[in-house]
Design a protein that fits this description.
Blueprint (H helix, E strand, L loop, with lengths): L1 E7 L2 E7 L9 H8 L9 E6 L7 E7 L4 E2 L3 H13 L7 E6 L2 E8 L2 E5 L4 E11 L2 E9 L3 E7 L7 H9 L10 E9 L2 E8 L4 E3 L3 H15 L5 E4 L5 E8 L5 E9 L1 E7 L4
């Protein structure tokens, strides 16, 4: 199987062209490809497929454990840049279907801006026990579920322990949630660490987590758009949005890098 390795702010992906629908990968095969010791190594796998509506393409996204997920913000930017490279001419924008809804992408050099699906299921100020400590947790679904804890010192957080406790907390059963820990550096500027569901570990970035955290920061403080979020990989992503008086978000966007790393061929078992 031919593939490209890409990364978006440190969130890395194996990306494949499946427009002819000739690939039919099992969850076990995807997990082996994403294995950092026995495979290519990635946080997930992206496949370009024919659109099922009036979009240009369809995005399929699989976590490193082989399970399919609805959406991945950093993955969507990489998907868009890869998909546009398949075309004879490069358009200024394109659209693609996802289980979380229609996504549109625009391009500016190596930066890609995608519109996110409309956030839903906002829950605020939940007092939950996380590995023996009660924390105030906020929740927002930005295509996939995200729980967020705002902390004073992000470096002091044991993300592996607290992240796993939050990811599997009964409040979010049965499928669980992604777990985020954010520090407010200044109004409108955040630092974020994320324990990703499906990867089951801390990753260098999570685009949907960046969006959820930025929007929750706005709801709590009223800080205007755009909001800058520095992720663990060192990049800073920008979240744009509109929000009405009832706290309903529209036109949520995520802007950040999408980089090609290398091309390769992997032999499938």
């Amino acid at each position: 199987m031919n593939f490209k390795k890409m990364n978006g702010a440190g969130n890395d992906f194996v990306v494949v062209d499946n427009r002819r629908l000739e690939l039919s990968l099992s969850g076990t095969q995807i997990a082996r490809i994403c294995d950092r010791h026995r495979g290519v190594g990635a946080d997930g796998l992206l496949a370009v497929e024919p659109a099922q509506s009036g979009a240009d393409f369809r995005m399929r996204y699989y976590n490193a454990d082989g399970g399919e997920a609805e959406m991945c913000g950093n993955g969507a930017r990489c998907f868009a840049r890869f998909a546009v490279s398949l075309l004879a001419e490069s358009p200024p924008s394109l659209s693609f279907d996802t289980p979380a809804g229609l996504i549109r992408a625009t391009f500016s050099g190596e930066l890609v801006t995608i519109n996110m699906s409309e956030p839903r299921d906002h829950r605020a100020h939940m007092e939950l026990d996380l590995a023996g400590a009660v924390q105030t947790v906020h929740f927002l679904n930005t295509g996939v579920p995200h729980a967020v804890v705002f902390v004073c010192d992000i470096e002091a957080v044991d993300v592996a322990r607290a992240g796993a406790a939050l990811r599997w907390h009964p409040e979010f059963a049965p499928k669980g949630t992604n777990a985020n820990f954010a520090e407010i550096l200044s109004p409108g500027n955040l630092a974020l660490r994320t324990f990703e569901r499906g990867v089951e570990a801390e990753t260098l970035a999570c685009g949907t987590g960046v969006c959820a955290t930025a929007l929750l920061h706005h709801l709590a403080t009223g800080v205007p758009s755009p909001i800058a979020v520095r992720v663990r990989g060192g990049d800073t992503l920008q979240v744009g949005f509109e929000c009405d008086a009832n706290g309903v978000f529209r036109n949520v966007t995520l802007t950040g890098p999408a980089d090609f790393v290398f091309d390769g061929i992997v032999h499938l078992d």
